[in-house]
Structure formats: structure tokens, C-alpha cells
Design brief:
The chain is mainly beta and 119 residues long. Helix content is 0%, strand content 54%. It contains no helices and eleven strands. The protein has strands at 3-7, 10-13, 18-25, 32-39, 46-52, 58-60, 68-73, 78-83, 92-100, 108-109, 113-118. Strands 2, 4, 5, 6, 9, 10 and 11 form a seven-stranded mixed β-sheet that branches. A four-stranded antiparallel β-sheet has the order 1-3-8-7, with no helix packed on it. A hairpin with a 6-residue loop joins β4 (32-39) and β5.
Length: 119
């Protein structure tokens, strides 16, 4: 079983930066795609960014493209999301997820880390 644990969330002023981490364990991720999602109060979960564990191909949502960077450290089984120029609209619980590359959905999810951006 894959276990995912997020960290790095917190309170930050608008225009500031945060770096989220997702520590993965339980199996090899060579055939997995990992990603970040977020859910604001009263809203549905939305996609933020994804990265293939092998090869490192990335994809970003329009809402964060240009000011966010997703990356991974294979040796540490850790994925990161660097977020800059944070806006009030970025306030949400951020979730780490993993799934087999090419599958229709993500199979594993972390418990989330809260990001709050003050305006």
C-alpha cells in the first residue's frame, strides 16, 4: 500500500511563497504519476499540477502556471510544490496524490496540508 504525507502548509501573506512536500512510501513509483490537488471551503477539489515519476514530465493548471513549480526527488521519494506570488484564491487544503501512469484516476491520497493566504 502506498502512503502519502503532505507537509509545508501554513499561513502566508499575499505575494509570499510556500514549498509543499509530499513524502511517499510503500512501493516503487517508477510507473506512477504524482500530483497536487486542492480544495477550498465549499468548493470541489481541483487539479493543480502533476509530474511523472520517471522522466519528470509536468503539467500545470492555468491558475498556477508561471508561478508554481512541481518537482520530485527520486532518491527521497518526495514530491514538492513551490508556490510563489501567492494569492487569496490559493487558500485551500492541498492534497498529494499518486496513480499508475495512464490510469483514469489517482489511487492514493494524502491527508492534506492547509495553505492560508492572507489578503
Amino acid at each position: 500500500q502506498v502512503q502519502l504525507v503532505e507537509s509545508g502548509g501554513g499561513l502566508v501573506q499575499a505575494g509570499g511563497s510556500l514549498r509543499l512536500s509530499c513524502a511517499a512510501s510503500g512501493r516503487t513509483f517508477s510507473s506512477y504519476t504524482m500530483g497536487w490537488f486542492r480544495q477550498a471551503p465549499g468548493k470541489e477539489r481541483e487539479f493543480v499540477a502533476t509530474i511523472r515519476w520517471t522522466g519528470g514530465r509536468t503539467y500545470y493548471a492555468d491558475s498556477v502556471k508561471g508561478r508554481s513549480t512541481i518537482s520530485r526527488d527520486n532518491a527521497r521519494n518526495t514530491m514538492y510544490l513551490q508556490m510563489n506570488s501567492l494569492k487569496r484564491e490559493d487558500t485551500a487544503v492541498y492534497y498529494c496524490a499518486a496513480g499508475v501512469t495512464g490510469s483514469a484516476s489517482y489511487d492514493y491520497w494524502g491527508q492534506g496540508t492547509q495553505v492560508t493566504v492572507s489578503s
